[in-house]
Design brief:
YbaK protein, alpha/beta, two-stranded antiparallel ribbon, globular
Length: 164
């Protein structure tokens, strides 16, 4: 599993975290963290403590929503939260890779190929520690809601998510 930490996509996440003063947080898991449920099971934590990195498009603008694993993104609220106008739709795999530099299943909230607006689910504040993907389906990092907001420059809002 240690070889996973040497992958270029994971090194980008480590570098982004490091530049924000966050060191030694990325870990490789023996089990996949491709989905929020997979990650929660592998980490032995609540599903809600997993921050899903979801990419959408509002008009032609790629945006990211970091949503608690036990919640759904409120796509109707997302444009207003980010100060954008237009319909919000799920981005396809090609747009996700172009905007973030990551493949679906390992999309991290940091280390993106380009800058994009980010909205963060305020309900993640229920947890003292949260986990997010780190550039590979077997890699995650631990953080807090405040640290996530600081490192991503994202807007924290309770309206980002809704109960499924």
């Amino acid at each position: 599993m240690e070889g996973l930490l040497d992958k270029a996509s994971v090194r980008r996440v480590v570098a982004a975290l490091s530049s924000a003063g966050i060191e030694d947080r990325v870990v490789a898991l023996s089990d996949t963290a491709r989905s929020a449920q997979d990650a929660a099971t592998a980490l032995g934590c609540d599903l809600g403590a997993i921050a899903k990195s979801l990419v959408f498009q509002i008009g032609d603008q790629p945006v990211m929503a970091l949503v608690a694993g036990d919640r759904q993104c409120d796509t109707k609220a997302l444009p207003g939260i980010l100060g954008l106008e237009g319909k919000c739709k799920r981005a396809d795999a090609e747009v996700v890779r172009a905007a973030t530099g990551f493949a679906i299943g390992g999309v991290a909230p940091v280390g993106h190929a380009s800058t994009m607006p980010i909205a963060i689910d305020g309900s993640l504040g229920r947890f003292s520690r949260i986990f997010a993907a780190a550039g590979h389906p077997h890699c995650v990092f631990e953080t807090t809601l405040g640290e996530m907001a600081a490192v991503t420059g994202g807007v924290v809002d309770e309206g980002v998510s809704k109960n499924p």
